[in-house]
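By way of example, what follows is a protein record of this kind.
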Amino acid sequence: MKIGVIGLGLIGGSIFKDLTRLGYDVVGVSKSQSGDRIYKSYDVLKDCEIVFVCSAMNKTLEVLDELEKILPQNVIVTDVCSLKEFVCKKYHPYIFIPSHPMAGTENKGFENSFEGLFNGATWVLTPFKTTPEEPVNKLVSIIKQLGAKPLFTTPQKHDEAAAMISHMPMLVSQALFLAARENPLALKMAASGFRDMTRLALSNEEMAKDMVYMNHKNIQDAILRLYKSVGELTSGDYEALIKSIKEERSKMFK
């Protein structure tokens, strides 16, 4: 099977390296990278069975439109954007299955991509109701071979959940550092807790900006829920709440 990967940053590069290791005929398309099996033109994708679009979120719609000129109708195309509703608003003649791997690091670029990034990660899919079962199963098979666990939902529910566990924490991490920066003594005292809490502040700037601007309503709702939870902790049964948090978190991250 020939598989194409557009955009060879952290996510795309890791997909490219993993699929190559798995023995697939993989071609990459990148404006910034060069090397074996990496090209500049979308023409190399014409005979692919599956194409992963791993471009920056603000460029993804443009890439999806461009592929309409290149790909046959039976090709499976998926994106890896951390938002799903905005990519689902237009019909494409190929088989488009929106998805989002819940994996990454604070680093960016092909040089920081690596085999095994998706091992144990959740990979969310939001297929259209009209999408045939066979291509969905084919994509799911590839995702499982990458080491990830498929999870199905709707674009709307995905974006709400992503705001809660990814986009809002990143924004809070950045805001925490900005606030602490006003207290020089606090920065001198900062240790592992502050380091871990602000790791997400190192997120890819372009990706972070896209998430904040394109999912701001869901992020605002998530921040209000966070504020409510702070109130519950400071005015409720603190010990009971902390015990329940520890129990649930231990089950999530064994």
In short: The chain has a mean pLDDT of 96.
